[in-house]
Amino acid sequence: MLRKRLLAAGSEVTEVVDHGFIRSVYFTDPNGIALEASWWVVDGTGRPTDYTDAALFSDPDPVPAVAELRAGDLRDVPQTKLT
Description:
Distance between the termini: 43 Å
Strand order of the largest sheet: 1-2-3
Order of helices and strands: HEEEH
CATH topology of the largest domain: 2,3-Dihydroxybiphenyl 1,2-Dioxygenase, domain 1
């Protein structure tokens, strides 16, 4: 529906891109700024995190923090506190 509305408004819009766990459309606003609108098709919330779940964590070259989580070896966890 959003894609149709964007097209009707004269925006340049991609086809829906299926990323597996989310779907996205990419478009430009009237000022030419590139934007993305995404929606989840796999609910990754409300359950314990499983970093081996390929539906959510399938990047073959993840950022170091995700690689550490997958290996069970998270080295640096920032301390947070309410002020």
